[in-house]
Design brief:
The protein is of the alpha+beta class and about 210 residues long. It is about 40% helix and about 15% strand. The longest helix has about 60 residues.
């Protein structure tokens, strides 16, 4: 209705056709933008994977170089070969550190189920100064974490702790209690009353059902 109370005129067919064409155009533009976004995101993800792969490979190439160098000197003295293996191990740890990975050892510390897994239990009850139960005694396999997340828990040997037994406390023997009759159960012991002139000459009371 208009302000004058007259009914509004229905929109012309040409106006509806123009509006429909505009909606179709906006829909096609939205679909095209989404398709471009999907393709661009795919290219960016592929480039990120390639860059991450290259970074890890470049970090581990020195380890491979030193392994080949150690193999080429396999006929050398055992001491020098051992030093070379230790150097390769240090390079491997450095490569992991450059990738954001840290090593979890925590030897001689308390066992943490979020960082460790039990690989062995050590009996320390016979040692002079045994550590508390659940102490990490040795690292059997190193664990690693990255960005505060445990990638692999460390397999450790924990102490079983000293074997403490519960001392036996002997119980004190109690004197046997006198048997109770149905007439004495739940009654307080009464002190004997002196015989007075009122009780003289009266017969003794007997429980019902018993013969005098």
């Amino acid at each position: 209705m208009t302000e004058n109370g007259r009914p509004e005129k229905a929109p012309a067919a040409t106006d509806l056709a123009v509006e429909l064409e505009e909606c179709r155009d906006r829909q096609l533009r939205t679909l095209a933008d989404f398709d471009n976004f999907r393709r661009r995101t795919g290219r960016e993800l592929a480039a990120a994977r390639t860059a991450e792969r290259d970074r890890v490979v470049l970090a581990w190439l020195p380890v491979l170089d030193h392994l080949e160098l150690a193999l080429s000197h396999a006929s050398a003295e055992p001491a020098s070969l051992l030093d070379g293996v230790r150097g390769v191990r240090q390079l491997a740890l450095e490569a992991l550190r450059r990738c954001g990975v840290v090593r979890l050892d925590d030897e001689h510390g308390p066992f943490d189920p979020n960082r460790h897994e039990v690989g062995a239990v050590v009996d320390v009850s016979t040692t002079p100064d045994p550590p508390p139960a659940g102490t990490v005694m040795d690292v059997l396999r190193s664990g690693f974490a990255a960005d505060g997340r445990v990638l692999r828990p460390a397999s450790v040997a924990v102490s079983a702790g000293p074997q403490t037994g519960t001392p036996h406390t002997p119980q004190t023997a109690q004197a046997p209690r006198a048997p109770q009759t149905p007439w004495t159960v739940g009654r307080r012991p009464e002190s004997p009353r002196p015989e007075g002139p009122r009780s003289a000459g009266r017969p003794a009371w007997t429980p019902p059902g018993t013969s005098p």
